Amino acid sequence: MRRFPRAKRVHGVKGIHNAYKEAALLCSTDYFWVVDADAEIVDSFNFDYVVPFFDIARVRVWRCKNPINDLVYGYGGVKLLPRCLVNKMDVNTTDMTSSISKHYEPVQELSNITKFNTDPFTTWRSAFRECVKLSSQTIQGQVSQETLERLDVWCSVGTDKEYGKYAIQGARQGREYGLENKNNNEALRKINDYSWLKELYERTVSV
Amino acid sequence: MSGIAFNPNAYDIVFLSYDEPNADENYQHLLSIKPKAKRVHGVKGSDAAHKACAELATTDRVVIVDGDNKVLPSLWRRNIWIKQGHFDWDNKVFSYSSLNSINGTSYGNGGVKCWPVEKILAMRTHEISDDESVSVDFDFDSYLQLNTIGSHTVVNSSPLQAWRAGFRDAVKLYMSGNGSFDDVDWRNMDRLYSWMHVGADVENGLWACYGARLGCYLIQRGYDHHELCDFDRLNDTFKMYYAASHNNLEKACNNLSILLNHRYVGNVFSVEKSIEYKEKVKPPVRSPEEFVAGNKDPEYDIVFISYDESTDNKK
After folding, report:
1. Which of A119, B76, B161, B212 has a CA positioned 20 to 30 A from the CA of residue A43?
2. Distance CA A199, CA A128 (A)
3. A82 touches chain B (CB under 8 A)
């Protein structure tokens, strides 16, 4: 807010898809930027990208640094979304960005650090959700080898970082859950249900 | 402000009506703002009707207001400043946006236009076209599309008017994707979506939704879209489907969504949802207006999304 006073906020909306739809309703520009709550925007990023007017409606995701395992890719990155398509997206999918548009563009510029390791549960939840997506390969356009390499890093690197053990445990559980439910959309969709995640965490986690 | 000023007050105004039930009312409204506005009424064929307007004009351009349009006084209060040397001024049509009375869309459909008279007299479109690209509409490439709303296009004065408006524009929008929803440009798809879903809150609004859906469905069944230029045939098509749909129009609309079978075509919105949609969902920007002097790149909205994260207040 200090750097970009025009920023608006959506808080406490249950379900990620619903939160993004709510965000779209706050906006009037053809595209809108989405910043997750755990994102710390880097100084070089200025929200000044402009989409060519007659371009097809793509989801654009900027690169982001993971503070636990140092991976740099789209996970947790700032997104630029076509507002009209967010309004109409199917809310019953596992991966929100690919349900907005089949056209996805990773932008090779760093936007932020995703500081998700703020407490044990939040850290575990973030790692679990991402590794379910990576292992089940539900994200459109995923490159298989690259995905597996990222999954390995999530599941093994970062024990020395704050709440790193929770990230690794969440990643390993997520990997297992994703593989087990690779073709079970109903089970995969549960990763967007934060109450279910909390219950799973309380039932299974011991670090 | 640098550039050339386009001032709509400099040109003759002609109100162009055919059979719109609200045409007289809209013309009187125009006269209350612009008492010298002229009128052409009942000329068959869009090309011929526009030529009749051009022949009435004594200025080198003519502002044409369609019969279903309720013009806004603000249209004549603002000059448009054009970048110098940006285009061939004499060959361009200024096309204002229009706010649709049924579904809240805002784009060129039915909007006020300011034409070069010579261009109208020389063109061969619609009923006399020998070029497929202008057989059911004008040459969009010559339009300077303005985001400024110059009028409200009031197309819900009768079931036929609403149905025909929805049918005609939906067919044009759908055909812009060659009869495939997935290939329609996303801004046009947004407009088509509104035509098909929004409007239960206004009188005859559902007729527009029905017309839009039926138009797309008939295209899938091989309908010849050139019939859009022939209002007599369109009226016959309406009569044919009226009997089967008017007793339960909502159901007829929803049955068409089953036949159209696409993720962007669902049940028509209720009265409450139509009102909410128009209040909350802004239509896409119509034009980059790259020809307007001083035009800047857009600055997109930013939304910060939080749920229960413990660090979010520190941002």
Report:
1. A119
2. 13
3. yes
